[in-house]
Amino acid sequence: MLNNQVSIRTHRSLRALCAGFVSAALFGGVAQAAEDWPVKPVTSVVAFSPGGTTDILAREIANALTPMWGQSVVVENKPGGAGNIGTQAVISAEPDGYTILINSIGPIAVNPSLFSKLKFDPQKDLVPIVLVADVPNVLVVNPNSGIKSVEELIQASKSRAGGVNCASTGVGTAAHLSCETFARQAKIEFTHIPYKGAEALNDLIGGRVDFMFATMPSVMGHIRAGTLRPLAVSTATRSVVMPDLPTVAEAGLPEFALGSWFGYFAPKGTPDHIVQKINADINTVLQDPNIKQRLTNEGAVPVGGTAEEFAAYVASETKKWNAVVTEVGIKLD
């Protein structure tokens, strides 16, 4: 009987010891896999044309990650379809971490409500990695227009047959929906003129359109150069970069509060240890004082955080923008 008890205890000890070895081997394998990645260049896809805020952020972060990873981080622009083409390209990519996506609020949170025949669901087909930045939109006009305030823009629209022209970076983008929301709340008429990405700014600077809601990093250089005049920021609170600039709410439309954000995503099925590594390294980049200062100077507010926090934020933002799209009544096929 005693020998049987000893045998049982010995068996259990050996089983526990083996389990420990297996656990250590698995943990060590995951740790080693994380250390081994990346072993080749990483492609960071931007679903918009060069020069816009997504592109600016992508290149800033890619330049910082390249020496950290010892591999090139290549920014590849795939514009078109209101961001859907670039987004779909990443969803279809191999889920190995070597193709990642930096994207904005539009393709992720707006397009699922906007496009009735969208071929993907960002919340199901992409893995959120990290929220990079919150970015105010700025209501800007051409300085030669003579318009110096939100109230003057509203009055200009009411004095013209057909109202004013509002440029955007595409139908259904946050810039477009901001125009629609602004016009509804101000009770004015306007003509929407969509462009492909950053091209809208060229016509605004050239005086061919009247106003635009543009992301702050994309227009800060023009504002400083005097080629664009800011009237207000779209967010609920003022920007730390231009604290004297009122919000649209303060300027007369108290219910107006819309902003933009940007973050990284990976294809569904990307191993969690790679997602966590990218998350940790981008968080490190966002805490770098020089990078933090450069982003802040451009009007972007660095955020960071966990992948799980970003996933929850994406879900809440998708719900919010669904309400905006429903109110405006836009549907695209």
Summarize the structure.
This protein is α/β, with parallel strands linked by helices. It has helices spanning 2-36, 53-69, 84-91, 105-114, 122-125, 150-159, 174-186, 199-205, 216-225, 272-287, 289-297, 307-328; strands at residues 42-46, 73-77, 99-104, 126-141, 164-168, 190-194, 211-215, 229-233, 259-267, 301-302.
Tell me what portion of residues adopts beta-strand conformation. 15-25%
Which overall shape is indicated by the principal axes computed on the Cα atoms?
globular
CATH superfamily of the largest domain: Bordetella uptake gene, domain 1
> Which bin fits the share of residues in helices?
40-55%
Determine the mean pLDDT.
Answer: 89
Order of helices and strands: HEHEHEHHEHEHEHEHEEHHEH
Q: How many structural domains does the protein architecture include?
A: 2
Q: Whole-number radius of gyration?
A: 24 Å
Which CATH class of the largest domain is shown? Alpha Beta
Task: State the total count of DSSP E strands.
Answer: 10
Query: Unreliable stretches, pLDDT < 50, 5 or more residues?
Result: 1-14, 21-32
Specify the biggest β-sheet.
10 strands, mixed
